[in-house]
Amino acid sequence: MRKLATLVLGLVLAASLTACQKKEGPAVTADDMSMGNPAAKVTMIEYASVSCPHCARFDMEIFPSFKTRYIDTGQVFYVAREALTGDPAIAAAGFLTARCAGKDKYFQVVDAIYHAQQEMFTGGEPHAVLLNIARSAGMTDSQFESCIKDESALNALNARWERYVKDDKINGTPTFVINGKVYDKGEMTLKELDDAVAEAKAGGAAKTGS
């Protein structure tokens, strides 16, 4: 993975962090990728990495039902935040590819990377796998190569991740913040999400600002 490893030179990762519970969640920003109704009573922020196996399992096994139940019905506003855990080079290249595909295809590309994660980690060449995903999203080979080598976009991605580590106290993925309440034990079951959303609706946690 030498081609992609060079993309993350200078990436600063914290060796250890202290978990922190906040009464108010981090405000949603223009850099965030989101889906659903921004006016929903409940906002869920997920910090995840496309090279994190736990994040992939959540995306494939739990998130589709959660999306159908809450996001598609306008009950939850979902915000995705890009974490560089697992293999930072693959994560960075994956997220850059998703953003280059465009906002309307961002989540489609992220989901495709999650589904291809096992292939990349068990003998597949990550660069080739990501290129095929980019092609499926309508990108040319040259657009893909330019995308993953975009220094300014990479620097912005690194800066966001460093901010999540420092300011939001993110020490693992996936981490969920639902109306300001932090759930940082990793993957959540659909039942646990049901309970968390119900608590948020009942006013058990403050709505995350925009």
Task: Please describe what this structure looks like.
- With 210 residues, the chain is an alpha+beta fold.
- The protein has a single domain, classed as 3-Layer(aba) Sandwich (Glutaredoxin), CATH 3.40.30.10.
- It has helices at 2-5, 53-61, 63-71, 88-100, 106-121, 126-136, 141-148, 151-167, 190-201; strands at 33-35, 42-48, 76-82, 175-178, 181-183.
- Strands 1-3-2-4-5 form a five-stranded mixed sheet.
- Helix 2 crosses helix 5 (106-121), helix 4 packs parallel to helix 6 and helix 5 runs antiparallel to helix 6 (126-136).
- The longest helix has 17 residues, at 151-167.
- It is globular, with a radius of gyration of 17 Å.
- The termini are far apart.
- The relative contact order is 0.22.
Write the topology of this structure.
Layout: H1 2-5, E1 33-35, E2 42-48, H2 53-61, H3 63-71, E3 76-82, H4 88-100, H5 106-121, H6 126-136, H7 141-148, H8 151-167, E4 175-178, E5 181-183, H9 190-201
Helix pairs in contact: 2-5, 4-5, 4-6, 4-7, 5-6
